[in-house]
Amino acid sequence: MRDQLLKRMTIEVRSFAVCEVRRGWPLETPPLGSVSLHYVLRGKGSLRDSSNQSLPLAPGSLVICPPNQRLTVSETVGDSFQLPHCEPASGTLEWLSSQRDDRLPGVLILCGMLDVVTPELGGSPFDRLQAPVRIASANAAISPLFEALFEELTTQALGCQAMIDALMKQCLVLLLRELQASSVHPAWLLALEDPALGAAVSAMTEDLGRRIGIEELAALSHMSRTTFIARFKRAYGLPPQRFLAEQRLRQGRDLLVATSLSVKQVALRCAYRSRSQFSAAFKSRFGRDPEHYRRDPRGDSR
What we know:
It comes from Halomonas gemina. Keywords: Cytoplasm, DNA-binding, Transcription, Transcription regulation. It contains 11 helices and 10 strands. The protein is an alpha+beta fold. It has 2 domains: 188 residues, Sandwich (Jelly Rolls), CATH 2.60.120.280; 106 residues, Arc Repressor Mutant, subunit A. Strand 4 and strand 5 form a beta hairpin. Helix 2 packs antiparallel against helix 3 and helix 6 packs across helix 7. The two termini are 32 Å apart. The relative contact order is 0.13.
């Protein structure tokens, strides 16, 4: 069943950048709104996340980061350098340099921002990841894939986007294998271990405007209410209703940015009874009310 889940996993590569970071000139990103991968092509350095956890970087290192992380990449310790536009447009490769002085030692990193969805999981296998995870260069199969990705991005040949998506899916499957084998953060991979919950998650996420109760969800999973709640929380880290609320708020966030629907219309599409109820929940989750978020979504930090 896990193979079927991964087979149906879809990947949309939002953007790629090559980040060149010189000694004494760290590169600091704004919060990244999606799962991000960082592969070290050359040089050595460190990556620090929003909680100040620091991971070493060396050629062949691969780091996967959960969404909404503010990252600082350094060749060595120095003053932060704020890069105002760290998210290039989809389908392009942008070269980002903290300092162009070639006399300074540097670290060169291929960075990608991805939207990963597995329908039965109601999102991505990486949604429960809480902190960046680093894989060293031990897996010989990963390195050629990223070298091929880099080649596709730089040449932009016919079928480039299809090839990039296919290569990235291979990279993610290899990454999941590596993490399972090494038992790194096993809790966030449990969703792949309990696919019996897939029917319930699909029912919850296919129509987020529909009201659905725990009893119906438990029946879809062929479990008692108590067993369903316990297994769901173990696999997803949240009780079913909190998980559903999170999915609805994410959809509301996307609708605010991508459509001209009024806040009340967005609220109704996300199963909220009123605009005020939606606004309160949205502000609690994202730190700003819907109107302010719509005006400036780039300030999203969660």
